[in-house]
């Protein structure tokens, strides 16, 4: 399998995230990618190269998925943060105030000029630090997803966008959950624009793919499916229930499988089989898999019980759809094991 590696990923390296009332060391660290890269190399799972995508082509692809004012915000957020106070150059940007939607309580037709307050217009949590290299890393990551889609359009059976920061929590105009640009959505849209009439996105990360769901919620041409921890108890908490089935023209083209914390292999595989049937029933001609390995039993922030030995069969089940497939690297925070788990799944896909 061809792997597109983000050469700028390490320029995004957060110090701390807000977690249950205190700042803790970031879970989403550069070594996650290094462990996956090294394990894929060790097993010779295909060539690895950086993406070669021109700036204009990339900008056009980003604009197919994200709002102009959000992209403008991301491109300038770090400089605005430092302009607020030169001492901010030594600190990651984290939001601390939000305009909640309650009637009459907050103005939504006005935007504060204060750069710290503006973070609250776009971030939905305080766990996603933004720093000097975030925009460059996220952009180069989106280029990986785009190049992976282009490779598949050119005839590759599959391609893997090995990038961080991850993407599936980023929506049309919001970031959070360690994600800024929605790499999976960018790949799915590129597959649509490249001629695939129906594209399915099957999200296997532990957390609900709220960004991807939101991006495609009113569309019938991209089927979005997600298996994840039940939002009654699991992040991102405010989306991901089973009765979210799409809206307008997209009614019936979103499905969620919220599963209880503690779910093990058998129940997870049963949900996957239902999702695979939905992909086939939809008549998808291409597939995008936001690949989170935080379903692993040893994940420090998640609650499923999958084992390393489960991942090859999961890869094989995805491959049995017989579709051109783009994988994007999402979560997975058991750093020392994430490489083995990712390689197990991708090797299972290739068998
Ligand atoms: N302050 C992915 O797996 N944890 N993202 C809570 C709240 C957030 C996970 C932080 C977990 C995000 C791509
Ligand atoms: Zn996750």
UniProtKB/TrEMBL annotation:
CDD domains: HDAC_classII_APAH (cd10001). The keyword Zinc applies. GO terms for molecular function: histone deacetylase activity; hydrolase activity; metal ion binding. Its cofactor is Zn(2+). This is Histone deacetylase family protein. Keywords: Hydrolase, Metal-binding, Zinc. Belongs to the histone deacetylase family. GO terms for biological process: epigenetic regulation of gene expression. Residues 28-347 form the Histone deacetylase domain. SUPFAM superfamilies: Arginase/deacetylase.
């Amino acid at each position: 399998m061809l792997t597109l590696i983000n050469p700028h990923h390490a320029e995004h390296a957060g110090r701390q995230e807000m977690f249950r009332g205190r700042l803790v060391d970031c879970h989403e660290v550069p070594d996650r990618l290094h462990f996956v890269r090294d394990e894929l190399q060790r097993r010779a799972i295909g060539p690895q190269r950086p993406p070669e995508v021109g700036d204009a082509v990339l900008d056009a692809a980003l604009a197919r998925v994200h709002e102009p004012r959000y992209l403008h915000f991301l491109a300038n957020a770090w400089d605005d943060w430092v302009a607020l106070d030169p001492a901010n150059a030594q600190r990651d940007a984290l939001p601390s105030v939000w305009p909640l939607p309650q009637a009459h309580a907050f103005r939504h037709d006005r935007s504060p000029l204060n750069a710290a307050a503006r973070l609250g217009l776009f971030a939905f949590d305080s766990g996603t630090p933004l720093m000097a290299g975030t925009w460059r890393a996220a952009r180069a990551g989106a280029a990986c997803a785009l190049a992976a889609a282009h490779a598949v359009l050119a005839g590759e059976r599959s391609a893997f966008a090995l990038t961080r920061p991850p993407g599936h929590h980023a929506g049309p105009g919001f970031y959070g959950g360690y994600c800024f640009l929605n790499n999976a959505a960018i790949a799915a849209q590129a597959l649509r624009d490249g001629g695939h009439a129906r594209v399915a996105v099957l999200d296997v990360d532990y957390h609900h793919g709220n960004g991807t769901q939101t991006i495609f919620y009113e569309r019938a041409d991209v089927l979005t499916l997600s298996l994840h921890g039940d939002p009654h108890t699991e992040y991102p908490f405010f989306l991901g229930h089973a009765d979210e089935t799409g809206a307008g023209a997209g009614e019936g083209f979103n499905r969620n499988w919220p599963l209880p914390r503690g779910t093990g292999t058998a129940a997870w595989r049963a949900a996957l089989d239902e999702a695979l049937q939905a992909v086939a029933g939809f008549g998808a001609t291409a597939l995008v898999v936001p690949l989170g390995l935080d379903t692993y039993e040893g994940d420090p922030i998640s609650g499923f019980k999958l084992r390393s030995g489960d991942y090859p069969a999961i890869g094989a089940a995805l491959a049995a759809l017989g579709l051109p497939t783009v994988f994007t690297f999402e979560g997975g925070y058991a750093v020392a094991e994430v490489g083995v788990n990712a390689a197990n799944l991708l090797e299972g896909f290739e068998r």
